């Protein structure tokens, strides 16, 4: 902390500033810049705002040589060391001190309103930093020595995740083989398709078996009349005859071949 107190840093520099002798304050209402002779400053120069440790210094210096004219130590802001006037934002009242401990109040003014704003903000930032340093020093020092919580995985350490409410999709299982068919798995039908069934007769060759000749099935319905004898070919009907023919004639011609119970031919 002592090394930091020896180090002086520059907070703000303004090339032009005016100094005024001010009358004593008549009441507690504050200072008024209109009571000063603003057009006749008592001294002009530059202002340099520095800090050493927690104390800020307003230094009034010569523009050319840099010789110190007066300085005002500021240990608190806002406070008695720096006060604003009630009728302007460009003028302030500061308390200067010499090496013998004597002090006096003088008025200072900036030609530009932006320079006055920078001066005010620089003082606020410095004492804001002072407050933060003071709060940090009041914290218990033993907190830094406490072990921190280690949430990392150790070497070889694993975790298990139990994810519930997960359903398997239908048809995700593979088809299993049927024990009765020798473990042959049947493939599922293609999606959106149809299974085509063969229409023709399926023949399976059997060893030492003679395949009988095919049975010729006549197209004539008279096969129902006599199953024992071959059926003569049907007679061609004349073009002008009825398509159904003459059932009486058919019954008379077939009466010798049909069995006794052939009354079903008669209508």
Automatic annotation (TrEMBL):
Residue ranges of every copy of the NECAP PHear domain listed in the record: 7-164
Residue spans of biased composition, Low complexity class: 193-209, 250-267
UniProt subcellular location: Cell membrane; Cytoplasmic vesicle, Clathrin-coated vesicle membrane
SUPFAM superfamilies noted in UniProt: PH domain-like
UniProt superkingdom: Eukaryota
Purpose: Involved in endocytosis.
Protein's recorded name: Adaptin ear-binding coat-associated protein 1
């Amino acid at each position: 902390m002592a090394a930091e107190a020896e180090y002086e840093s520059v907070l703000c520099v303004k090339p032009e500033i005016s100094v005024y002798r001010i009358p004593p304050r008549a009441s507690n209402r504050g200072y008024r810049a209109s009571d000063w002779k603003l057009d006749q400053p008592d001294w002009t120069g530059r202002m340099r705002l520095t800090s050493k440790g927690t104390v800020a210094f307003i230094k009034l210096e010569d523009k050319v040589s840099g010789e110190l004219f007066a300085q005002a130590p500021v240990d608190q802001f806002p406070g008695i060391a720096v006060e604003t006037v009630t009728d302007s934002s460009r003028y302030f009242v500061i308390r200067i001190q010499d090496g013998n401990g004597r002090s006096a109040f003088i008025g200072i003014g900036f030609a530009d309103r932006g320079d006055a704003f920078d001066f005010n903000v620089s003082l606020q930032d410095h004492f804001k930093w002072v407050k933060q340093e003071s709060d940090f020093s009041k914290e218990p020092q033993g907190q830094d020595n406490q072990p921190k919580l280690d949430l990392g995985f150790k070497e070889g350490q694993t975790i298990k995740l139990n994810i519930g409410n997960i359903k398997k999709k239908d048809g995700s299982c593979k088809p299993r083989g049927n024990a009765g068919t020798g473990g042959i798995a049947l493939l599922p039908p293609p999606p959106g398709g149809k299974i085509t069934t063969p229409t023709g007769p399926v023949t399976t060759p059997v060893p030492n078996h003679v395949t009988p000749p095919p049975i010729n099935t006549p197209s004539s319905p008279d096969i129902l009349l006599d199953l024992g004898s071959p059926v003569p070919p049907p007679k061609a009907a004349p073009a002008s005859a009825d398509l159904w023919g003459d059932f009486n004639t058919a019954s008379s011609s077939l009466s010798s071949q049909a069995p006794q119970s052939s009354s079903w031919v008669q209508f």
